[in-house]
Records
---
Amino acid sequence: MEPAASDTSRERAARAADRSRIADIEAQILELERTISSLKEEKNSLRDRLATYTYPVLTLPGEIVSEIFVHFLPDFPQYPPPIGLLSPYLLCQIYREWRHMAFSTPVLWSVISLSFRKAGRVPQKLRYLQTSIERSPLKLGTSYILDQEYLAELNHVIINHFHRMEYLDLSWPGSEFHTDTELSLPENCLFSTPTYFIRSIATLSIGVDHARRAFGNYGAFFELHQVARWRKDGIGF
């Protein structure tokens, strides 16, 4: 019987040690919670103090801020990307008021460049194009519209704002064109539209990869003599 009594004594001692350790842990937790609470109070106090500080840049008139935003963009005819360091959307991610100013500054959205190389992202880019077009008179560049099913939608988006465009730059891969000697634009291309849309364009550029063809009679068809200036990229005239 003595061994059994000894085991019971050791078990009681172990349970007592566990209870003591739990009490120590609870005391430490309580102390840490007090420390965390104190740190949170200090953090809130510092935030409140910072909130009362007015940064000098935030005192600038909105017109000056908008002008600074405009100089942020690359010089035309270079295009700002839809995302990244030179995108106007970067200005919208810094400060809530700046976001409002950026969306209210039409020049920031006056040059749009999109590449349609990845068919899976075409719907997203068409939405971006529609939103950007609605914000400003614009210069527009597009490249590599590979999927015919999206040409009609692109046509619809652009034609609705064609009269406001100053510069239009389009590029297709050579495979989109027929193999005869005259240049044939893809079916449902936006140029299968009334020619008075073209007359508002100051500069028109059409580029075709891996193809240099005579333009044939399309100049007369499009009344491209109405265009003030051509930039001939990738096409022989």
Note: Residues 110-230 form one domain.
---
Amino acid sequence: MKYFWIMVLFLGSIPRVLGQQVPQFSLYTLNPYVYNPGYAGLENTLVLNGVYRQQWSGLQGAPATQHVNVHLPIYAISSGVGLRVENDVIGAHNTTQAILSYNYQLNITRNVLMSMGLSGGWLQYSLDGAKLRAPEGTYAEPSFSHNETVLPQGRVQAGAPIFEAGLFLQHNKWEIGLSAQPVFATRLKEQSNGNFALSPIQHYLIYGAYYLKVGQNLKIKPSGLVKTDFKETQMEVSAMGIWRENTFAGVSYRGFTSNAKDAVVLFLGFKMNDKTTLGYGFDFPISAISAAHRGSHELLIRYSLNKPIGVGKLPPVIYNPRFF
């Protein structure tokens, strides 16, 4: 418990500012780096993850997310580095970001490794006015007019630097992460007419998982994720079973309050070979808009080099329990 409060104090010392919305990922337990820059390199090898998520299938303008990340350790300086590229589309809105990360790792006890990560990059936001509709507008093809001055007629965009922070604790039986997305982001404002401005919201994320061996062939990994901006909070719990370290299946429940209730998730996957893993998740909707869509799909492909890279003298890191 004292390690958790160390992380709270670290991130609490960072000034609170506005940040971007956090995309939803159902397979977060297979890909902790997606939410925490402190995780880079903790698998002791090069890892590449690619994710495609289609949320609320069948609903026009529903969110769609493409995400790629890569991270690896730098043994010589007890560190890790990573890169995350993400594109998120919601109706007329499009957010793209590319973020580099660095984290420093140290053993705080014989069995517990702490990693402190910072990341920085660029956030690009655009709004396609052609996809918007106003009550008084005229929309006869091929031309249209919103007949008001607030909504843009075409595409407007703005960009700004963005920074994030995260702490990650790793034991051979459990792991805990705490991150802030972002710790700093400039207010986005379109320059040509000044009508378009965006001040997204900072989020804190808490992740935890435990590794339990059941017999010779089965391992169980319960995990949880909390996302909050201190006005709204969403919690998710998952349980994943791993059979002979090459096939997995699990279930998640997202949303424990009436406002945050979202989905029951079933996911499964397998190792295609020693280095490549394929995972798929389906969200069964239970929210207030469940009748308007047909659930959400998420596909993950993961590549792990599965051997140390650039090895000089290895640091005294703990055994990593990750199965995939």
Note: The chain has a mean pLDDT of 85.
---
Amino acid sequence: MRYTQEQISTALVLLKATGSPDKVVQTLGYPSAPMLYHWCKKYPEYYDVPNQKHWRQAPTELKHDVIKRCLIKGEPVKLVAEEIGYTPSLIYKWIREYREKAVIIDALKNKYSLPDLLKKLNLAKSSYYYQEKPIYAEDKYSNLRKRIIQLFHENRDIFGYRRIHMLLHREGIKVSEKVVRRIMKQEKLIIRRKRRQKYNSYKGEITPAVEKVIARDFHATKPNQKWLTDITEFSIKAGKIYLSPIIDCLDGMPVSWTIGTSPNAELANTMLRNAIATLKPNEKPIVHSDRGCHYRWPEWIQIMEEANLTRSMSKKGCSPDNSACEGFFGHLKTEMFYGYDWDEYSIEEFIHEINGYMGWYCKDRIKSTLGGLSPLDYRRSIGIAVSIQIMEEANLTRSMSKKGCSPDNSACEGFFGHLKAEMFYGIVSLPFTQILITMDMDLPLSISCLVPEIKSAHYKLSGDGWEFTQKLSAYE
């Protein structure tokens, strides 16, 4: 409804004379209290708002009316706030206050009369009954809440709402990140954060430094292309422990690590030898480090030269040159060290905890940069791309069945049927969970069998029968 300028001026003059919005509405029959306050702000020549002391403290009638409009009628808080001249945050504060009052009244209404409680807490009856409904309403996120709490504790109390949301998405649970964040806040699922002075291994220019080959480009297109290394210190009541890992730039996976009570040459050299042992003959990664003494000693240099690996070093005192490795240490200490009480742990027990975290990091810690996968799962996923690359290099033609159409590959399906019927069903339960067979017409040429978490065996057809050719790690 539109009001004339004369109606507006009459209402504002009466408000100035009486000082009561309720009396204006009762006398004139218009407008609503929020509209009257809006006019006061819009036409200061009739009603000087800043000079009125009561303007800063909103009247109870106004609060009741605003809450009714926002909660019962469903009007947008932002529009209501613009109309009455108050901020949306203040309106949300009123709503929270009324909800708290409703909880207090609900707890005391068996002991005191409802009218007395409403009067004492200055709450309208209609507002109380509206707020009472959510108190007894069933929590629609009860199952989700339990799952979020479970995932948070399963992952060492270190995943924030974004990673918890990724885990839920992988399980097929579709929910907003905001809902996950709100539930975690309500359940006080807070990750620990604390910083301490970092360990420094610089002992001067022992041997000439090499060039910064990586030049802060930590992107890798395949495994074992770029490695990063450093040493970090953990200080607990039982003593000091040092961790020396090698991190692969492809996915941040620790390729190798050693843990000890002294940051000596053996700690770094053993870690390097173990990492080199995982390389294939054609893999020659760049190994980047800071200018610490461990990477300047003759034995380290000799191991690198014998393996034909390329050395790379940060500039003196420039930690951003090795920021990816520093970031790994930051996540590690934030997630499993800072904020925990290690006073009762011995050095051996603490080393066991670090080893447990490193294994969990490889297999279970999901990363947003890897599409919500752990480093190990990511490497398994890119195995498909590797297979395609191998076929292209061999100049082979790829062919695929239609989606869900097994008859398009019926010859291979038939082979599996004969195999299982003749040597598997009803006889023995083999540990093989995956079998890859290459066939030529009806004749199988090669068979690859994967035994979960143990070994993988590959056989090929030769003139004398099936010949065992190689064994590979299941995680390779």
Note: Confidence is low (pLDDT under 50) at residues 49-55, 428-434, 450-476.
---
Amino acid sequence: MVLAVGERVSHDTFGLGTVVAVAGEGDKSEATIDFGDYGQKRLLLRYAPVEKL
């Protein structure tokens, strides 16, 4: 999955979030996502249960 800064996503546990940073490529791609009440989380996109909205 490819994400860009500013995109909105949904996570199974943390709910709705906004991508604030993206780093790496391919299997090593990770995103920092602001989930509001849950704070910012840095997730490895290969494993994260994240869906683009």
Note: The CA atoms of residues 9 and 52 lie 5 Å apart.
